[in-house]
Each structure stands twice: as C-alpha cells, then as structure tokens.
C-alpha cells in the first residue's frame, strides 16, 4: 500500500492525493491495484475499509 502526492494533482487551493491500494480477488486469488484520487484527509479511511 502506498500514498503518493503527484505535482500535477495540486491545482490552485485544492490539494489532492493519489492513493494506490492492492486488492486480492476472492475468486482467483490474484492481486490487482485500485487507484483513486481524493482529499488527503480521506486517505486513512480509504485504506481502512475493505
């Protein structure tokens, strides 16, 4: 799991964070990556939910 701030996402007064989460598929057992762009305050909630 990683959290990365991208310079191109910082526009004006609003700061955004790109969060990348690794998710395991229950059917095949393979891992995939889910990316989301959100407010930095919401990142911990994003990683805590399944």
Automatic annotation (TrEMBL):
This is DUF4295 domain-containing protein. InterPro entries: DUF4295 (IPR025379).
């Amino acid at each position: 799991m990683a959290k990365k701030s991208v310079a191109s996402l910082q526009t004006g007064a609003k700061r955004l964070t790109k969060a990348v989460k690794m998710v395991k598929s229950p059917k095949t057992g393979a891992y995939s990556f889910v990316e989301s762009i959100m407010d930095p305050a919401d990142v911990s909630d994003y990683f805590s939910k399944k």
